[in-house]
Amino acid sequence: MIIVMQDTATQEDILAIEERVRAEGLETRVLRGVEKTVIALIGKRPPELAEQIERMPGVFSAMPIGEPFKLAARSEATERSRIQIGNATIGNGSAMVMAGPCTVENRDQLLTTARHVAAAGATVLRGGAFKPRSSPYSFQGLGVEGLKLLVEARETTGLPVITEVLDPRHVDVVADHADVLQVGTRNAQNYVLLRELGTCEKPIMLKRGMGNTIDEWLMCAEYIMASGNPDVILCERGIRTFETSSRFTLDLNAIPLLRRRTHLPIAVDPSQGTGHWFMVEALSLAAIAAGADGIIVEVHPTPDVALIDGQQSLSLENFSGLMTKLEPLAASLGRSTQGVDS
Ligand code: PEP
Ligand code: MN
C-alpha cells in the first residue's frame, strides 16, 4: 500500500502513521519529495487498514497496490486454470461450446435439442430447471423434474450438463444431478449462495452481475474460492447500459481484461448478452476471436413457442450454421471446439 500525505502534513502526522503501521507488524519507507511525502508499506496488511489510515490527520490518500482477490488473481507466473467438465476441458486453449434450451420444458424438447447440439459439435448441454423470473406469475422451471430430464439427456448424448442453482438450499440436489452449477446474473452477489457453492465439489460457472464491475465480479469469484472451491468459470453475459436496442450490452472488453487479471477460464453468453437470436452468431464468433475459453448459447427446436427466451434462442438449423463458422474460426487460431488440448 502507498500512503500519500497532504502538502500540509506535519512531522507528527507522519510519525503517527509510522507508529500505527508498525503496530500491525508492517515496515514503512518514507519518501520525501519536493512537495509531497509518500509512505510505502511493506508486508501483509489487514484489509481494513487503507480506509482506517485515510481517516488519520495529514493523509491525502491510501492506495492498496495488490489485487484484493488473492485466489482469483493472476500474477505473471500463474498458469491459467483448466477445469474438467465431463471429457472436455475449459481453459486449455480450446473453444468450448455449451448449448441447449434456456429452460427444460419437457422430455421431447430437451432430448431433441440435446441430440442436435451434440451432433453439431457442442461439448456441454445447458438447460435451466430452476429459473429466476422477473414475474412471480411466470413459468418458474420444472425444478427437480427438470434436473432428472437433464440426467436422462446426459445418458442419451454423453454430454455433461450445466444448470442454474438459485437457492443455497438447492445446492446439494443440483450438484447431485449436474456437472456444472451456474450462478445467474441476479444471484451474482448473493454471498450466502456463493459461500455455499464453495463447499460443493462441482465446478461453478459464475455469471457477471448485470450491474457489476469487473472488480466486483472477481470478488464474487473470490467468495466461492475462499470457501473451498477453486473451480470457477467466469461468464460475461452482458451489462445494463443506456442502450435499449439490445437487451443488455455484451461487454467483450471483459475478455482481454480478465485474461490479464485472473487465471480463471472465461465464457461468454451471447444469448442473454444480446437478447436477439440474429445477433448471437456474430457475438459468438467475436467472443472466441477475442480470446474467450468458451461460449454458452440458447438453442430451441421451436423458438417461436419457447416458454422462456425464444427471441434470443437459435433454431436447430441456426445452431448448426453457427458451428460451421465457429469451427474453422477456432481452427484458424489454433484452437479446437472439442475441448482437447491445443
Ligand atoms: C440463463 O442462462 O438462462 C439466464 C437466466 O442467465 P442470466 O442469469 O445471465 O440472465
Ligand atoms: Mn435464458
Describe this structure in words.
- There is one protein chain.
- 34% of the residues lie in helices and 18% in strands.
- It contains eleven helices and 14 strands.
- β7, α3 and β8 form a beta-alpha-beta unit.
- α3 runs parallel beside α4, α6 crosses α7 and α10 packs parallel to α11.
- The longest helix has 17 residues.
- It starts with a strand and ends in a 10-residue tail after the last helix.
- Bound molecules: phosphoenolpyruvate and manganese (II) ion (MN).
- The site of phosphoenolpyruvate has 10 residues, from loops.
Question: What's the SSE blueprint?
Answer:
Layout: E1 2-5, H1 11-22, E2 27-32, E3 37-42, H2 49-54, E4 59-63, E5 83-85, E6 88-90, E7 96-100, H3 107-120, E8 124-126, H4 144-157, E9 161-164, H5 171-177, E10 180-183, H6 191-197, E11 204-207, H7 214-226, E12 232-236, H8 254-261, E13 266-268, H9 270-274, H10 277-289, E14 294-298, H11 316-332
Parallel strand pairs: 7-8, 7-14, 8-9, 9-10, 10-11, 11-12, 12-13, 13-14
Antiparallel strand pairs: 1-3, 1-4, 2-3, 5-6
Helix pairs in contact: 3-4, 3-11, 6-7, 10-11
Bound molecules: phosphoenolpyruvate and manganese (II) ion.
Mean pLDDT: 95
Distance between the termini: 39 Å
Low-pLDDT ranges: none
Q: How many strands, what sense, and barrel or not for the largest sheet?
A: 8 strands, parallel, barrel
Tell me the radius of gyration. Answer: 23 Å
Structural class: alpha/beta
Tell me the strand order in the biggest sheet.
Answer: 7-8-9-10-11-12-13-14
List the ions, cofactors and other small molecules found in this model. Answer: phosphoenolpyruvate, manganese (II) ion
**Number of helical elements:** 11
Number of strands: 14
Summarize the helix and strand pattern as letters: EHEEHEEEEHEHEHEHEHEHEHHEH
Q: What overall geometry do the principal axes of the alpha carbons give? A: elongated
Q: What is the percentage of strand-forming residues?
A: 15-25%
Helical content stands at: 25-40%
